[in-house]
């Protein structure tokens, strides 16, 4: 890690959208609208004075800052994405309510590569040259990292979607030969046109091709994998997530896709390949400024300068708000974690990223749309660098949806039960993160959740 990154103290925090946001055409819902978005009626009580709404909004930004909206972020490309309030989520026709008969989240672990398909193993590893100065042996240890264990996902979902049962899908998925395999798409690539995804005695045809950017030898068609997922859906499933080690793409034009959900159909897929820590250099990921340190004003100013946005000096309010609160606590905790160096650290980093994406896709299965109110786990993302800057937590609007779905719809509780649910869920998240505190994302999340708990108690 370059010395200047280590030296950055993240002194002033960026808790509002960046100075670039305006240029991008993003207009954040104001504080009254944000408040109203958390209520079932969709209204903020009219007799609350403007000043008290503003004061509350400033206070809450120390826990829940605004989306950063940096150049090439999702909100740069989609600045007018429609907000989904709690009220609009409640009335969403496509949304599946969890019921006592359909409440289980299933996790299907990575399909096993059967011996006849041994060539598919190579497809999971990116084709990159070892870094200059490092010989092949040094980097191959990272290259050969095993993708995270399914059990880790099961445990994380259990905390994040506290109250919903989570189970590993009982059957082992397998990559098998597709009978009418078809000619290889081109001789040089020797990629079969189709491979088979086997579940029990059923096999689904999956289209294959080389990845257009040349990073992976073989890439699989996401829609075909989703077809297999629909067929697998157990009767008691609220939803199912498939984890694949191969690079995937959606449609002919698409280069690649990291994960995708068809929420109404209760299915989603996440790939591990593009999240491999070995790709960080290529993606220009600044490990010292991933969440929570992504809210460092100096870092944000640097990224906005690329678009000729002059940095504004820190205001008194900004300096004041940077001293304490959950985001500050998260940064302090994450800063204590040394940069990942061992293979164990690398695997934890890989898992942390995937865990964040996986709960996002499952969030779509819960009927949640991309969030435009706050920095939030449900924000849309336009690339790996942005992915690393986004938080693992749900903002007040999105948390309102999950707490309502679980505490009220599934458990038939009232508003008091819903408040208790929010506390219990944070406790479950703290317990989970406790076991993963060697990783800066989880260490930060733990510190953040502990502060939140104190605030709401
Ligand atoms: Zn999404
Ligand atoms: Zn949100």
TrEMBL record:
One of its GO terms (molecular function) is metallopeptidase activity. Keywords: Hydrolase, Metal-binding, Metalloprotease, Protease, Zinc. Signal peptide: none annotated. Residues 31-58 are annotated as: Disordered. Its cofactor is Zn(2+). Pfam families: Peptidase_M54. One of its GO terms (biological process) is proteolysis. CDD domains: Peptidase_M54. This is Archaemetzincin-2. It comes from Melanomma pulvis-pyrius CBS 109.77. The lineage of its organism: Eukaryota, Fungi, Dikarya, Ascomycota, Pezizomycotina.
């Amino acid at each position: 890690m370059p010395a200047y990154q280590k030296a950055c103290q993240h002194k002033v925090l960026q808790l509002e959208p960046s100075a670039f946001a305006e240029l991008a055409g993003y207009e954040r819902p104001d504080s009254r609208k944000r408040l109203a978005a958390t209520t079932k009626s969709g209204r903020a009580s009219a007799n609350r004075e403007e000043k008290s709404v503003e004061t509350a909004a400033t206070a809450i930004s120390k826990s829940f800052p605004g989306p950063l909206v940096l150049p090439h972020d999702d909100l740069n490309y989609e600045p007018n994405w429609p907000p989904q309030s709690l009220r609009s989520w409640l009335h969403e026709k496509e949304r599946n309510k969890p019921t006592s008969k359909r409440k289980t989240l299933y996790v299907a672990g990575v399909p096993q590569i059967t011996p006849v398909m041994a060539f598919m193993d190579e497809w999971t590893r990116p084709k990159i040259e070892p870094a200059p100065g490092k010989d092949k042996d040094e980097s191959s240890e990272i290259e050969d990292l095993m993708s995270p264990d399914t059990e880790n996902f099961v445990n994380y979902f259990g905390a994040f979607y506290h109250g919903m049962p989570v189970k590993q899908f009982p059957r082992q998925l397998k990559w098998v030969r597709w009978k009418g395999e078809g000619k290889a798409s081109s001789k040089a690539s020797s990629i079969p046109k189709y491979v088979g995804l086997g579940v029990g005695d059923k096999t689904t045809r999956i289209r294959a091709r080389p990845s257009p950017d040349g990073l992976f030898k073989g890439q699989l068609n996401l829609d075909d994998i989703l077809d297999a997922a629909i067929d697998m859906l157990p009767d008691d499933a609220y939803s199912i997530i498939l984890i694949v080690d191969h690079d995937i793409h959606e449609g002919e034009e698409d280069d690649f896709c990291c994960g995708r959900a068809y929420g109404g159909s209760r299915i989603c897929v996440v790939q591990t390949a593009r999240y491999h820590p070995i790709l960080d250099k290529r993606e220009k990921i600044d490990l010292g400024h991933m969440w929570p340190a992504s809210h460092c004003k100096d870092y944000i100013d640097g990224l906005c300068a690329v678009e000729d946005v002059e940095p504004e000096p820190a205001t008194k309010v900004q300096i004041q708000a940077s001293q304490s609160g959950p985001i500050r606590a998260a940064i302090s905790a994450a800063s204590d974690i040394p940069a990942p160096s061992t293979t164990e650290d690398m695997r934890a980093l890989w898992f942390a990223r995937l865990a964040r994406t996986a709960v996002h896709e499952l969030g779509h299965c819960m009927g949640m749309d991309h969030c435009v109110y706050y920095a939030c786990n449900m924000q849309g993302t336009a690339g790996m660098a942005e992915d690393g800057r986004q938080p693992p937590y749900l903002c007040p609007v999105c948390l309102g949806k999950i707490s309502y779905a679980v505490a009220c719809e599934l458990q038939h509780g009232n508003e008091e039960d819903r408040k208790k649910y929010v506390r219990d869920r944070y406790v479950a998240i703290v317990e989970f993160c406790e076991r993963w505190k060697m990783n800066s994302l989880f260490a930060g999340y733990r510190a953040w959740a502990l502060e939140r708990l104190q605030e709401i108690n």
